[in-house]
């Protein structure tokens, strides 16, 4: 997969908001805080957290060297 996309940062910037569609809504429910406000970076981190959890349930991870989102994961951890 990584061979087919040479600019994962571009893909992430164009798609993260679709992947994060329900993140804020779900956090408001989980935390029982209907007025919760999160900034863009917080939403991106929570999106990666959810993606990582999904991948772990399917015997994979964002930390894989050939993962499409490895670049994004490493960048946001800094």
How much of the sequence lies in strands comes to under 5%
End-to-end Cα distance, whole Å, is: 24 Å
Query: What's the overall geometry?
Result: globular
Number of strands: 0
Structural domain count: 1
Sketch the major β-sheet. none
Structural class: mainly alpha
Overall mean pLDDT stands at: 80
SSE order: HHHH
Q: State Rg.
A: 13 Å
Poorly predicted sequence stretches spanning 5 or more consecutive residues = none
Task: Determine the fraction of residues in helical runs and give it as a percent range.
Answer: 55-70%
- Give the count of helical stretches: 4
Please explain how this structure is put together.
The protein is mostly helical and 78 residues long. It has one domain. Helix content is 59%, strand content 0%. The protein contains four helices and no strands. The longest helix has 18 residues, at 40-57. The mean pLDDT is 80.
Brief sketch in words of this structure:
By secondary structure, this protein is mainly alpha-helical. Helix content is 59%, strand content 0%.
SSE layout and pairings?
Elements: H1 8-19, H2 23-30, H3 40-57, H4 70-77
Notable features of this structure?
78 residues; globular; single chain; mainly alpha; 0% strand; 4 helices
